[in-house]
Design a protein that fits this description.
The protein is built from 9 helices and 4 strands. The protein has 249 residues and is α+β, with helices and mostly antiparallel strands. It has a 4-stranded mixed β-sheet, with helices on one face.
Amino acid sequence: MAPAEQITFYTAAYSPFAHRVHLALEEAQAKYTTYRFEVRGSRPEWYYSVSPFGKVPALTFGGPEVVSEQPSPESVKLVESMAILEFLADVFPESNLLPNDPVLRAKARTFNEIFRNYVYDEFRDAFFLGKPVEGVLQALEKLQGALPAAGGFAVGEFSIADAAVAPFITRMMLFVREGLGAYTEENWQKLRDATEGARFARIMQYVRDVHERPSFKKTWGDDALQVSLWKDHPGLRRRQLAAPAAAQA
């Protein structure tokens, strides 16, 4: 039975961390109020009573129904996307965000740990810092190896593993397709060739399956929206190779 307490979800469309929670709320069929920040940057003063560091996502749970800009001191304030995912799995057990089977629960958490320990930093380094892309490709192979070979999501059925990882992998593949990234033209071509070929056929099927999930369709918007949110990000500006020095006479 779904909890009766009010839930207010503070989010921003550009944030893959907030997208994690949005997916879980939809998968749980929770009743919730959304407050969306439209731009990056500083937050209004009242928001720091919800999220001490001003980050999204954040959740208020319980307390009286109030306007989102006036959060009640009686509500519980929750921050950090993975902590919120685990919380939602606990308060909405019928959602099966965490499987009942302890082996599958462990596999769900392992999938996210592989992403966190191997993929996330390589994604940041290649796409936002312009470092060589071999690292992110090797990390993607590790993540792909944790997917069931026969298809489906991380542990077969959709779980918090997918809610945690899919917002990043889908954006990554969109960035590759659209050429958004600090990498050089040469490294962009390496990414395109690799992700379009047989080497990553399984993870690309995973991405397509995620896009077909009703919760993802509802929370993603569309590709054009995501491109518009990211195309002017200073970290995604294309790097140019330095011109060779002129020969000395």
